[in-house]
Each structure stands twice: as structure tokens, then as C-alpha cells.
Write a structure and sequence with these properties.
The complex is a heterodimer. By secondary structure, chain A is of the alpha+beta class. In chain A, 39% of the residues lie in helices and 21% in strands. By secondary structure, chain B is of the alpha/beta class. In chain B, the strands form six sheets. An eight-stranded mixed β-sheet of chain B has the order 9-6-10-12-13-14-17-18, sandwiched between helices. The chains are: A alpha+beta, B alpha/beta.
Chain lengths: 633, 425
Amino acid sequence: MPIESQHEKGSDIIGLKAGLEIHQQLDTKTKLFCNCPTTLRDKKDTILAFSRYLRASKSEMGKVDEAARAEEQYGRTIIYKGYDSTCLVEYDEEPPRELNREAIAISLEVALLLNMNPIDGIHTMRKIVIDGSNTCGFQRTALVATGGLLSTEEGPVRVDSLCLEEDAAQKLEAEGEAVVYSLDRLGIPLVEICTAPDIKTAEQAVKVAEQLGMILRSTGNVKRGLGTIRQDVNVSIEGGARVELKGVQNLRLIGEIVNNEVVRQLKLIELKSELNKRCAKVEHEIKDLAAIFGVTTSRVIKKAGGAVFGVCLRGFAGVLGTEIQPGRRFGTELADFAIKFGAGLMHTDELPAYGITAEEVEHLKRTFDATEDDCVVIVAADEERATKALKAVLMRAETAMQEIPKETRRALPNGSSAYMRPLPGAARMYPETDVPPVEIEDAWLEYIRANLPETFEHRKERYKAKFGLNDELADKISRNSNFALFERIMESYGDVPVTLVVRTLTDTLVEFMQEGLDVVQLTDLHFLDVFKQLSANTFGKEAVPDILKFVANKPDLSIATAIDEIGLKSDTGEIEQLIDGIVNSKKEFIREKGERAVGPLMGVAMKELRGKVDGELINRLLLEKVKRVLENG
Amino acid sequence: MQKFVDGDRIRLKKETNNAIYEGVVMPTASRDIVIKLDSGYNIGIRPENVELDVINSAGSLKGEIKTEIRAVKEGLPLLSILSTGGTIASKVDYRTGAVSPQFSTDDILDAIPELGEIANIRGKVVYSILSENMRAEYWRKLAREVYNEINDGADGIIVTHGTDTMGYTAAALSFMVQTPVPVVLVGSQRSSDRPSSDAAMNAICTAKVACSDIAEVVVVMHGSTSDDFCLIHRGTKVRKLHTSARAAFQSVNDIPIGKVYYDARDIEGMRFEFDATYIKRAEKELELRDKFEDKCGLIKYCPGADPAILDFFISQGYKGIVLEGTGLGHVSADWIPSVARAIKDGVPVVMTSQCLYGSICDRVYDTGRDLLHAGLIEGADMLPETALVKLMWVLGQTIEMAEVRRLMHENIAGEITARRGLIHI
């Protein structure tokens, strides 16, 4: 069956359940637990670096979290880069300050917009994360609200939780056994919103993400731009497992990610039964294979100093070569595990290739007594790393015969995903004793409730009702950051065409930007003035873009001067003269056509007057004068 | 409302908005009911207008207790770890969320298994107190324990200690125990329940030092903000110079004895770098000299300070006073009569400097010369707290003023540096 069409069996049959986790940075003045600014820095401006190690510690219940344990095995050195805008709190050299109240207020606002119930007392927790993205080895997070609801066409989606968290440090590079993080992002407040697994289709997932994004933006207090919002998706299907897909950068990719994960799980279920049918078996003996590759042309092996180790997966032939996601085979899954230990992985499903000859492959197979049904997996790395890598690979291969593993995966730009770590459990969470709990007083909550921003949905409906806008235009302007300006223009100059105002504030500005015009020069006052003059009938509405373009280049000019300079000023006397001239020269045509002559004459007049005078005015004057000609015989 | 206790699993319904929460009751100092949800999050709920059901009661929530018998490894040295309440092997209490010390040998090796590769470990809790509650009688008890452990064949002693007063304890042990083996004090600036804790690296470096041939009382702590090396500080020269940073401990008026590198992170690959000479293993006989005069005071002089402060100490029966003066070792001229009176009454007064760096020299200015004339004892380049501990120890050995003066001027445990280079500042 072609890989794309598998999931089209329908979500009911495959039992797709998906939930979304949205992380949105807040635009606060300072970070969540210190007084550093929330600005990202040019990585060239770093002023210091230091290195650390992290080790998995036990939770308050005396358990070590699985994900933390897995991460600890890789034993990486973590290098941190600091700036003049970071402090001892980010360096884990000073206790955190109290929770940032501005950030609490914004998260309460979002919670109320999502119809959630805020918690009375907010307790900051430590969520163990030891990949190095947090200097202290945990992310500080606090549950702020629960029990929200979103409505979608496909049905309601529950919003389980809203947490206020600190953002993690940004990974710059991983070089060998060291990983480098930049500390400018660490500690920026963000809200994490999790929905219940109520989403049943990929399309619904996209819509829910869009709706959440709109609500967040409506507060006006969230950061905008690349990397300020990150989406994770949880996906499970019947017979599969719950898998968390992390870091979907682009909203449009969500649908694809969900579909590809469904395909991956379906494929893994197929592989599982195939392997069981074949009575496949994983052999745990790791063999030193350096002798085979003494004079190899493989660059990977040469780079590892000729060290090669391998294992044999009995009955796995063809399985590693099976595509389970676009561009990713089951072998790629196994390679994800090996690369965590810095070891490159190759297997006989894909060999000879990569500079490894058919002869060497034969030799490999002989070493393991491998038949056509078997697959030999090799890694090029020193003994310690190779052993750890192969053990992880063997474990994953064994799991393939038993179940679909619950895991956290990293979303890739092409819509597929790679293995990251096991799914973390509740053992990763314990109280942050350095941060006192925060009481949410009723008065504070009521103040926020009374000052909630209007949602896009509400604004859109209001615009439709009040200004008679159609759905498309109402939608466009209510989502636009210029919506407030739009309302001011309509309040002051209600007689100008509303469609024109919306188009000007949306499409026209986009066109200007595409043309490379410096639209930042245009202030609210410019727009208000243009429509004031239009309302006073000083020029024709077709000229609005020209005037704005003119002013964008000469922002010191007033709109009135601009109209003068472009030569748009409509002197009624002049216009009448011009129209008189047209009418007089076409008297015969008028007598012949009667009032129907107005249409063709309109075209002639517009050629002369476009932009200077409103079309309707020309039409009115023409009609008057045509009538007069007809009356006078 | 149904009665409940910490650890019970309860369900709460808020009447105001019908929100329902279920979780395990956690201990709290606030008036809210605090529960841990299944997601791991703790939340606070106001006890008014709630319906509460106890789902099941506490008891099933105990953390796992792991017991594992560890065999003694032939060929490895024997280290004795004495705990005084430090956080090296502490755990978070799942009920209170507080960090509490746990100190069986298994607990230590559970937390830091690498120690088992370095030595055979014997653990003992001497007492469990916060370092700020330390006092002279605890120093004596600790000195005796160190002495006993060495007598019992320990090849090295590790003392885990809260960092706040670790410098004082290190100085006290330096004077009280003449040791043929390393005696190493260690603490941590980040509690061991966090993955970034400095406890493990400090402890591993400490174990290395405790197996080395440095037969002195030393403090081993992070040398920088990175997890790259620990500094080995002489116990009489070390001071906590930062409230929270890892590299808080620095040697003042002396270079550290050396460094122990952790950057490779494998026990085999750890190496030493020595910058100063030190007393070697078995060079000195084991000796306990734990007589101490507890009633000594440290007075910090500040501009305008009233000499009645000193008079008060004398009237309270203090047997020795260390002054922390300004600059080269001064107090205002109106203190001189009080200083003279104290000394005349047989109470030695020792001058140290609040500059910390540099030596006392009261021969330069008039006030200084007047103080010397009054019988003041110059504290050389000793840290004020080291001078205090030393004076307490000296007064335990003799009360004869001339002998006190001689001992205070003599370098007994590395507390006085003969030559000072341009270091640190």
C-alpha cells in the first residue's frame, strides 16, 4: 500500500487521538525568575562561557525519571554562553527570585479567555530536564488553570491545563561529546497550553492550533515572530502508543506531522507482526569487526579510526530498509539511538554503499553466519561508545517485536520525526522550594476578568453587525493589528466606504511592503487624515493608495500638502469646465443615445479625472449636464 | 468537611466554579490545602466553599527503600565520611518538600556511586545541624571523632559540612588535630536534589584528596563556575566569599595548595596540580589537642563605634577578644583606653583587618603605635575568624599573656603566611 494513503482508512478505524501542547513566549519586561530582559541576543555578543555536567537526581518519591536517566547515559559536557543581559540566576549560581507578577497576570488573562478555572495558589515545580537546556537541570513550571473548553466544527476540545513556565536555553551546536547552549532565551516566561486528546483529525488539529494562537495574540502581550510559539503534538492510534512530537515550528506542518505519525505507527504495527511471523530474534553478542575494514574506503569508518563493532538481528532482513515515514526507514529509527552516543550506524539492508564494498559485506555476513533472512548492524565508534550505542539499538529492535514504544520525538522540517527520548513520567516533578507559592487573590482575578481583551471571534461578529462587512473582510480586519485604527477611522468618518478602509489597512499595506515601501513611516495620523480628506470629498477614493505611497516617502508632509503636490486638488469649477467641454463636443452623440450616453462619456471623463474626483461625483455632474443638453434640444 | 491528613488522596470540588481536583495532600505552611495532582503539579486550594472527599488514606505512598550490601573492595583505601549536616547525601522529603540529610553508607554510594571506585567508604553521622548553629562544643566533638576514625585505621577523613561556617570548623580542626592523613571538609552550594548540584563533583574530588598524601586539614570546593576543577584550600586560610556561587570558597592571603581536575569525569583520569608545599602523609604523629576557651569574641569596628562595646564584652567575662579593625589594623583613638584596660586585666586583644587581604601593621600610623603600646597583639595576615578560633585554642593551652602573645605570632597550622605575593586581587 502506498505510504501516503494508509491513514485514509478514516480516523474512526485507526482510532486517532491527538492533543496539542502550545508554548507561547510572553512579552514581559523581565524574565520569569530574575530581572534580566527578555530579549534574544546576537550570538556573537556572548561575553562568557562555562561548562557543566548534569546527573539524574531522585524525585521526592525516591524515583529517577526515565527520560532523565536516558539522557544521563549520554554523558555530555554542556557548555553555556552568557551575555551582559544574563545573570547569576541563569547561571544557576543564585536562587531564583519570586514569580514574575506580570507573567502571572498575562497567563491568568489567557486562562480566562479559554474559559478555564484558575488555581487559588500557584506552586512552582521543578520538572527534571537534563539534556542541558536548563542550567539547573530542571525547568521551573507552575500550574495556573485547568478545565477549559474550545469549540470546533468537529466537536468540543477540552483544554486540560495552562502552565506558566520558563523557556529553555537555546541549543547552538553539538560538537562530539559537548553540546553548546545560549542563555539569552533561558527564563523568558511562556505559557504552555495542553488540550485533552480530543482531536480526531489532522485538520482539526490545525484549526485548534490556529484558534489557540489567535486567543494568545488577542492579549497583545505575547511575543511575535519566528520561534516565539512552538507546538508539540501528542498522537496515539489503536494498537499504537502515545507519542509526543516536539517542536513543530510551523502551524501548517501540524496536519502533516499527525498524518506521518499515524503512518509510522501503522507501519510499525505491520513490522511487528511481520517480525513475529518470521520468529525474528535479537542476538546480544557484540563483535569487534575492525579486522574486516582494515583497508576500507568508508569515510565514516576511517573517521572513527577504523573502530567498527556490530550485531546480528536474525530474521530482520528487509525490515531496516522499510520506509516508515517520508525519507525515513526503520534503520533510520535505529540510527537515532546510535547517534545519541555519537556513533554512526549502517546495516546490510543498505550495504554495499557509503564506501563499503560487496566483499566487506560478505565478510560481515560470514562473521555472523548471517543468512539472507538476517540483518547485520554496524556502528563506527570506539569500543565504549559503540557498546552503548549497540545496546540501545538492540533494545529498540527487541521492542519492535513487542510494542510501539511510548516516546518523545523531534518534529523534522519535512513533517516526519526523529527519536528524542522516552516519554517522561510524573517522577520528573518536585517542588521548587526556592520560590514561594503565589496566592491569586479574588480582587486581582476580578480586575483581570473585567479588563479582558475582546476575542477575535467576538470582534469579527461585532464588525459584521455594525459595519455590514462580509465574512472575509470582517475576519481580515479583526485579526489585523490595525483593528483599533480601523474603529477610530469609522467612528470619525463614518461616511467613507468601509470596504475601502479595510482594504487600505490590510491588502494595500501588504502590497506596499511587497513593493519595498517603508510602511513604518505611515502613522495612525496619516491614515486618519487621508480618510478625513476623503470624507470632505477633496479627492477621489481611487487615489488613497497613491497619497499614502507619496507620504510614506515624505513622512513630514501633511496629507493636505501631499494632495496639493500630487495635483489631486479637485476644484469643482475646473471639473465642471472639463465636463462641459466633453459634453459640448459630444452633443450629437448625446441626442442620439439619450441618457444612455452617460456611460461612454464617463469613460472619457475618468481618463482625465481619475483619482482627482470621486467617480460618483463625475457621474452625477455628467448626468446633470447630459439631461440639460437633452432638455434644451 | 471530611478530616484528612498529609499523604491522603482526596477529591475537592470548588462550589464557586465546580472545578474538581484530585491528588495527594502535601504538607504546607500556607492556609491553602496543597495537593499533588497525578501530573506531578502541586496546587493550592482555598479551604472555603469546597466539598472534600477522602479517596484513600496515607500509607501507600512511601518512597522506595533500597538496600544493597556492598562488598569491601581489596586494594582500595578506607575513607571515613563524617556528616555534620551537610547536603552531600541529602534527599528531598516527599512529604515536606524539604531537603533532609540521609546518611547511611548506602545512601552516599547510591547518590554518588563513583565514590565506590575510589575507596571503601564508611559513613557516620556525628550530628545533624545547620551550619549556622555550629558552636565550639561541636568542634570539639568533631575533632574527637576525626581522631577516633584515624585511630581506627581510616586512610583519610571526609567531613561533610554546611558551607556557611565551614571555614571556622576547618580552622578549628586545623588547630585541634595534628594529623598523619588527609582531613577534608566539603560542602555544596547547590543542594544534591538538583541535577546541577555541585555536591557530587565536590565529593568525588574530595575523596581523591582524602586518598592523596596531603596530610593537612583542607577544604575542597569548586574552583570556578564550571565543573572543571576543585581547589584544595588550607583550612586556616579559606573563606566563603560568595553567598550562593559554586566557587564561593577562596584562599585569602595564600594560594590554594592545589587543584584536582574533574574535566575528564572518569575517576582514573583525574589529576592533581600542586601550587604550594604541604605536609605529607605520615609526616606527623596523630595528636588531639582539643582544649578550647569558648568565651572569646570577635568585634567588628566601624566608624563612630562606641568603645563601651569592648568594655561590655570584658564585663561579661570574655577571656579573649579579636578586633576586626580598619586598614592596617586600627580602631578610633577613643578605643585605646578600653583596649589597654582589657589587656591590663589579662584579656588578650588581637587585631585583624576588615580588608581581609594583606597583613596587620600597627607601626605605620600613630593610632597603631598607641595600640601596640597598650599591649595589642597583631594578628598578622590571619582571617579574622581564623584569628578568633586560634585565640580560643591558644587560651585552651595557656592563659599566660606572654605565652598567648608568642603562640598568636607563631605559625601553627599554616594560618600565618610568611611571604605574600600578588594574589587574587
